[in-house]
Amino acid sequence: MYPSRFRYEAPATVAEAIALLADANGEAKILAGGQSLIPMMKLRFAAPAMLIDINGIAGLDYHHPDADGTYRIGALCRHADLEKSAALAASQPTMAAAAPVVADPLVRTRGTLVGSLCHADPQGDWASVMVSLGGSIVAQGPNGRRSIAVNDLIDGPFQTVLAADEIAVEAVVPAAIGTRAGGYLKLERRVGDFATVGVAVSAEMSGATVSRAGIGLTGVGPATINAAEAAGSLVGTSLDGDALDTAAQLAAEAAQPRSDHRGSADYKRHVVATFVRRIGEQIQRSGQEAA
Amino acid sequence: MSTLFEEVPASFGDDVPVRRVTLTVNGEQRAANVEPRLLLAHLLRNGFRLTGTHTGCDTTNCGACTVLYDGVPVKSCTMFAVQADGHDIGTVEGLATASELHPIQEGFKDEHGLQCGFCTPGMMLAAKALLDENPNPSEDEIRWALSGNLCRCTGYQNIVKAVMWAADKLGGAADDSDDGSADGAGSDAGEEG
Predict the structure, then answer these.
(1) A191 touches chain B (CB under 8 A)
(2) Which residues of A touch B13 (CB under 8 A)?
(3) Nearest CA in chain B to A190
(4) What phi-psi label fits residue B51: left (phi over 0), alpha (psi between -120 and 50 degrees) or beta?
(5) In terms of CA atoms, which chain B residue is nearest residue A105?
(6) Fewest CB atoms within 10 Å of the CB: A22, A31, A263, B49?
(7) Is any Cβ of chain A less than 8 angstroms from the Cβ of B21?
(8) CB distance B74–A51 less than 8 Å?
């Protein structure tokens, strides 16, 4: 399968990439990992007139915590970099749980977290994770940089609010109040399949009490779902059974699944509730072990 | 041009610039003129006639087209040939020497790690990337590393055994590097048995 013809550009700087984007007037796509974009181009769901390959731009492959705990992921940081990262495992439990279950090992060597967010696939794991963490992206355009919360970035399936001449240069996870806890669970029929259901739960703990929480749902709606009410119900609790039951039920109600070959809508709601409860129990258990 | 790339139009329109790419394939410098939309898998197969790289699903699912891109396993149906400009590509043809099979190939032979053979090149390159990074993987680690490569015949059991066989052999003969400097069998503190 061949994509439609396109003009290929490989700029050496972000500024050059932005100039090319402006030049293309909305007809260009950024090529980072390409693991979603290239298949879509081959199927001709996407047919950009210009492809701007940013893989030659130096200094975008980083991921690291700042001194205050803010975590930054550059536009060329691959899923596999995150999967293997000790720094991530030590400080970002929700992300560390998600990194190994994104797609398959071969896709993970190329695909990027920032690219996944910009692709805005309702099945994308990272968007749910970032929504649960209150994360954002930094978009750079001709007039400088702006921060966009991932929750506001995605405005529909495969749609973002990025302007035609903006490029997402990094993703940012804010520093936690207290200790970061969380997890990501994904039900898939086989490795690399789209998620039947994915659930990200992130919590910031002051001792055994939740001071802030976020829940993101993958694959159970037309876009990534921010189960804010469910997450809010956990704040102030110690993730006891009643609190988890309430949050699980609210998360299941926030889901908008459709019945398909991966399962009925009811089944998917049930899995959402089960995963919320499981991650909550896991957080509570690890807190008790640490105490 | 038409003889070199059968799947690409012989003449390009003026608006489709052909790009010259220079890359290393199995240690050898190669160059080609490619249209940007040419996939790496097709450059290897149709351009360089390295037909050991198989295109299976052509939809980023099966891993039959796996090659090593600067030592990292990637699906060559999900990269453009232009992206390989200046990079080092390893294909299944680069595993054996003129006289000897690579231990991974020996392993697949000895343990019957293939039936129809279609997925085998991708399996072996994914296995090579694993063993370069982790010379003594557990069975779980092997299954994990190969989980992006689909086999529709054998059911994976013998493939996993083949990789374990190769790990043993490579670990036991760390100094007898057989396919060049980039091989991961660097440490001779092999853990046999």
Answers:
(1) yes
(2) 5
(3) B147
(4) alpha
(5) B148
(6) B49
(7) no
(8) no
Of A38, A55, A191, Cβ closest to residue B147: A191
Would you call B121 an interface residue with chain A, using a CB distance cutoff of 8 Å?
A: no
| pLDDT values of chain B reduced to their tens digit, one per residue, 193 residues | 444 444 444 444 556 678 999 999 999 999 999 999 999 999 999 999 999 999 999 999 999 999 999 999 999 999 999 999 999 999 999 999 999 999 999 999 999 999 999 999 999 999 999 999 999 999 999 999 999 999 999 789 999 999 999 999 998 655 444 444 444 433 333 333 3
Q: Which domains does chain A have, with CATH numbers?
A: 7-52 (3.30.43.10), 63-173 (3.30.465.10), 179-290 (3.30.390.50)
Q: Are strands B19-25 and B28-34 parallel, antiparallel or unpaired?
A: antiparallel
Are A110 and B19 within 8 A, CB to CB?
A: no
Q: Which of A1, A6, A35 faces B36 most closely, judged by CB atoms?
A: A6
Give pTM, 2 decimals: 0.91
**All structural domains of chain B:** 19-94 (3.10.20.30), 103-172 (1.10.150.120)
